[in-house]
Amino acid sequence: QAVLYEGQVRGRILWPATYKARYNDGFNPNRYVCRQVNQRYDTPENQLLKYLMVKIDDCLRLLPETIRRGYYYQTAAGQPLQAIAELSAQMETSLNHLWRNVRLAEISTPEYISEQHLLKAQTVRFEEYAHAARLYRRYHALVLQPSWSALQTVGQRVVCLPAHTDSTWENDCIALSAALLRPPPLAPDHSPLTTRHSPLVTGH
């Protein structure tokens, strides 16, 4: 809903309408036409959902073509190779359906997700918001502040293979998948050769 304000801004400024309003009936630089946000829908949990929708869109758009045309394998499920294009198409279709929701225009997109967003999502009565909070935490661990241990946790369950191996980048992708599949090395104090119960240490 577009609302005319004078001397204040509430919601997102609609600049074309604002310029028109300023020059209508004499010039008034203090006029602003804003799309007023309905507080009923602009809640922290809905902001989290919209943030995730934007980021998933970005990830799908940046997916290299050789990966998009490649395959993924779920090691835990022991399933055969499946086409990544099929999975990405399903995600894009679901996102396009969500973007058509008229209420999204009433929800602001935060620049970053705070603990308040996550806490609210985890405490509302709809379980889907708790799923969204868990998805964000995984996104944060894998994309925003990635660590080798977080990547390996995923890499040991799902392996993505490029469509071809004609370039160094594609070969490096396969090498990375192989490295992620390796079990993490034992810490020195947990090595079977150095624990106090080992016969090599106790002498028994």
Account of the 3D structure:
Helix content is 49%, strand content 11%. The protein has 204 residues and is mostly helical. The protein has a three-stranded antiparallel β-sheet with strand order 1-3-2. Helix 2 (44-61) crosses helix 6 (127-144) and helix 7 (148-155) crosses helix 8 (168-181). Mean pLDDT is 80; it is low at 186-204.
The end-to-end span amounts to 81 Å
Q: What's the number of helices?
A: 9
| Major sheet | 3 strands, antiparallel
Radius of gyration: 25 Å
β-strand number:
6
What is the percent of helical residues?
A: 40-55%
Low-confidence stretches: 186-204
Principal-axis shape: elongated
Please provide a brief summary of the model:
The chain is mainly alpha-helical and 204 residues long. The protein has nine helices and six strands. Helix 2 crosses helix 5, helix 2 crosses helix 6 and helix 7 packs across helix 8.
Keywords summarizing the entry:
single chain, 204 residues, mainly alpha, three-stranded antiparallel beta sheet, 11% strand, elongated, disordered C terminus
